[in-house]
Design brief:
Protein name: Ig-like domain-containing protein
Membrane topology: Single-pass type I membrane protein
Largest sheet: 6 strands, mixed
Distance between the termini: 108 Å
Pfam families: ig, Ig_2, Ig_3
Keywords: Disulfide bond, Glycoprotein, Immunoglobulin domain, Membrane, Transmembrane, Transmembrane helix
Strand content: 35-45%
Bound molecules: 2-acetamido-2-deoxy-beta-D-glucopyranose
Shape: elongated
Helix content: 10-25%
Structural class: mainly beta
GO cellular component, one term: membrane
């Protein structure tokens, strides 16, 4: 009831609008043909917004009488809705009539002095229209304002259609999802991504990503991997009393990633029968399944489908020391073909000479703290390294307590501290890693020991620097004096009298200034 009042106020505009509808109506025109629509007042249901359309008296009177029609502005098809006619200040009416688009649809005979009546309508597709209430008294006919009723078809059968269909697409392309209903009118749509509502608020999923929501359509202009997931939509009509919604089933959007350039590499192994090459082709990005192809000197020699991963291996013939050809990998997807850089299939056996570099590391207090030994090998594609100290092998796997560590595939030996126990002659050896029977190539032994090097202190450096500056000064002064002397000799050659103070008269720009300044500086010290 409170609600009715609120709306009665908000719809005051209806009253003015009703002026145009105010008219005298011939009582004889009233028919009873739509009486079947008249329902019992008890089984009504009130709908969304109750609108009050007030009366405008058709004839003037001492106190303005009023007539109002109260009812919903939207009603579901096949529901029963109540329209209420209320009068005040009218001479006791005997009949209330409900008009739709000017035609009588219901009549209610009422008891004496009753100021209102209710009509219950069963909503059919033809129920949509403008309703008015009419009251006839002995003197005159009164009409209420107009109430527009919309018939809402309840939603059912919601599905999602996609473009492309099925919704599997490459990153960067456009995705369109539509929320389609089998039946329904006056619908609004809501989208869900991974069960979370998609809105334009920043908390909503997908918000920072480009997408548009228009009517029943969700458009992603540029799909990224982030858009992959499950989508569903909900369509329905929100009404004050009964809101009806229908959800679709989920559709799974899959976003395919473009392939990156494949990387090619190979390994070699030896068993009793001989050598085996193994070429690896691998892409870091992409969506399987893809097909890898191996070409040798531009001729395809093998291919393999990678269903789950982005890697394939190919066995190849390999003879150490022989050039087996230029190999390339190519990876194909349904949209792309990408080729790797070429790789020479050639295994160079370990050979030449081995040398060792030592680098000492010092602490802040100039104490020797660590050493790094690097093993250099002339050539060899797959070398294995081994280190020894005073002719005993260093273990490859150093435990936490030991003071050495191997890095760079055994090529680098780091002595984390230098003690009596690990000082001595170090030696590096290398051989083919794929062949345990191959011969070692050895370096010369190098001595690693604690050397007491007294690092020059900052004071020493400062004194040396001062001495250097003094020497420079003295040299400069001597040079300038020599220049001045040669000038004086020249002036003297002309047999002119020698000025008393040479320095004030001889114009020697620049050098003289420096000379004087330097002398001054020198005098101060
Ligand atoms: C090649 O190497 C890969 C990875 O180590 C291995 O899984 C595969 O079995 C090897 N293939 C051949 C033919 O040796
Ligand atoms: C290795 O030999 C050198 C020279 O003979 C010796 O000074 C050093 O202590 C030895 N180191 C070890 C750990 O035995």
């Amino acid at each position: 009831i409170t609600h009715t009042h609120t709306h009665a106020h908000s719809h005051t505009c209806t009253q003015t609008h009703a002026h145009s509808h105010a008219q005298h109506v011939n009582k004889q025109h009233a028919t009873e043909e739509n009486h079947s629509n008249l329902m019992n007042i008890q089984d009504f249901s009130l709908f969304s917004i109750l609108v009050v359309a007030s009366l405008v008296p058709t004839m003037g009177g001492p106190s303005p009488p009023s007539l109002a029609l109260i009812g919903p502005d939207k009603a579901y098809l096949n529901s029963k809705d109540v329209f209420q006619c209320k009068s005040s200040g009218l001479p006791a009416p005997t009949t209330y009539e409900l008009l739709k688009d000017g035609n009588l649809v219901a009549t209610s005979n009422i008891l004496e002095e009753d100021q209102s009546t209710a009509f219950t309508l069963k909503i059919s597709p033809t129920s949509e229209g403008s309703y008015q209430c009419r009251v006839a008294t002995e003197e005159s006919i009164y009409l209420s304002g107009t109430l527009h009723l919309q018939v809402v078809i309840p939603v059912s059968g919601t599905t999602v259609t996609s473009d492309p269909d099925p919704p599997t697409l490459y990153e960067g392309s456009r995705l369109t999802l539509r929320c389609v209903v089998n039946k329904g009118s006056h619908l609004s749509y809501t989208w869900f991504f991974n069960r979370q509502e998609v809105t334009s608020s920043s908390a909503s999923p997908l918000t920072p990503l480009l997408l548009q929501l228009v009517e029943n359509t969700l458009v992603v202009e540029t799909v990224t991997a982030m858009h992959a997931g499950n989508y569903y939509c909900m369509a329905g009509t929100r009404m004050e009393t009964i809101s009806r919604f229908s959800s679709s089933t989920e559709v799974t959007v899959k976003v395919k990633v473009f392939l990156s350039e494949p990387q090619i590499s190979f390994t070699i192994a030896k068993d009793g029968l001989g050598y085996h090459g193994n070429v690896t082709c691998m892409s870091s990005r992409g969506t399987p399944p893809v097909t890898f192809h191996l070409t040798l000197d531009e001729k395809e020699v093998a291919s393999a489908v990678a269903k789950e991963s982005l890697v394939a291996w190919f066995p190849v013939a390999m003879v150490p020391g022989n050039f087996m050809g230029m190999a390339r990998c190519r990876v194909d997807s349904d949209a792309q073909q990408v080729t790797s850089q070429p790789l020479a299939l050639e295994v160079v056996p370990v050979g030449g000479s081995v040398t060792v570099d030592i680098e000492y590391l010092y602490k802040m207090d100039s104490k020797m703290s660590a050493a790094r030994l690097q093993c250099h090998l002339s050539f060899g594609s797959f070398p294995a390294f081994s280190w020894s100290l005073n002719n005993s092998l260093l273990p490859h796997l150093s435990d936490a307590a030991s003071s050495h560590a191997l890095a760079n595939g055994g090529r680098t030996l780091v002595l984390t501290e230098i003690t009596q126990e690990n000082s001595g002659y170090y030696l590096c050896r290398a051989r083919d890693s794929y062949d345990n029977a191959s011969a070692w190539v050895e370096s010369e032994p190098v001595l690693v020991q604690i050397i007491d090097v007294t690092m020059p202190t900052i004071e020493v450096i400062a004194i040396v620097f001062c001495c250097f500056v003094m020497v420079t000064l003295v040299g400069g002064v001597a040079c300038i004096i020599w220049m001045l002397n040669s000038r004086r000799e020249y002036v003297g050659g002309r047999e002119q009298p020698e000025p008393r103070d040479r320095q004030r008269h001889i114009r020697l720009p620049g050098t003289l200034t420096i000379y004087v300044t330097l002398v001054d500086v020198k005098k101060k010290y």
